[in-house]
Amino acid sequence: MTLQQLKYMIEIVNCGSINEAAKRLYITQPSLSNAVKELETEIGIDIFIRTPRGITLSRDGAEFLGYARQVVEQAGLLEQRYLNKKPSRQLCSISTQHYAFAVNAFVNLIKHSGADEYEFTLRETRTYEIIEDVKNLRSEIGIMYMNPFNRGVIEKLLRETSLDFHSLFTAKPHIFISTENPLAGRKFVTLEDLQEYPYLSFEQGEFNSFYFSEEILSTVFHKKSIHVSDRATLFNLLIGLNGYTISTGIVSADLNGDNIISVPLQVDDYIEVGWICNHQIQLSKQANAYLSELESVIKKYSLLLQE
What we know:
CATH superfamily of the domain at 171-271: Periplasmic binding protein-like II
Mean pLDDT: 88
Radius of gyration: 22 Å
Number of strands: 12
Number of helices: 10
Helix content: 40-55%
CATH topology of the domain at 171-271: D-Maltodextrin-Binding Protein, domain 2
């Protein structure tokens, strides 16, 4: 087993493909495939599961990659200390549902990293893909929510994929609307108040189950419903169509301006937002730094909500 082989395995996971990893490593695909097979034979486990749709990490592979990342990180520190090599590029990948506070924390992470070189990845994506990203170590951390409706399904899926959920905060449901919306001056709104307004939600692709919806009350019927794939489009439609979406109440004026506000939604429900990780690996320094930034951002906006 060599340090180079470990770096190969990490790059394959980061790319999600042997072909793409080979291009980034400037080696041929057969050479990289052979390196994988040789390492798997040497250590006696299958690191990857091959399927017609590509490769994914096996359960043993996830544990192995956790150790491999620690070894590569420590080797880099030794080279910096004793061989006077410049620090390696800082790496960090995060997958998240469409939360502005998650982006805020990511911005702060980069600003405070102090790195001359870095390669950070932020994926605002679908619920099922967040779980897949963290399971296969394409991302170290995933940000998502649970509530009484989806908890059983999500917890079962996390158990099956060796992932742990760590709570960040619990919030009462709010709607996000434009400051020009007729409901903007209300102290709270009800579902009946919203019947004539377009309801906006994030589409979930082929895993379009109610349990994977990013919005609570996903089984409620809406007269007017629009599905979108990105947060910028959703906010534009909130303004242009007087639409609404349901979320935590934490909206970032820094990133989204002052024309989107939150109003409490009077329903008997809650939203518990947390982060998931693979319990077989140790988080990197950058991932832990991101969690610290996330907690700071959440604390700041939670205080604003209480004012």
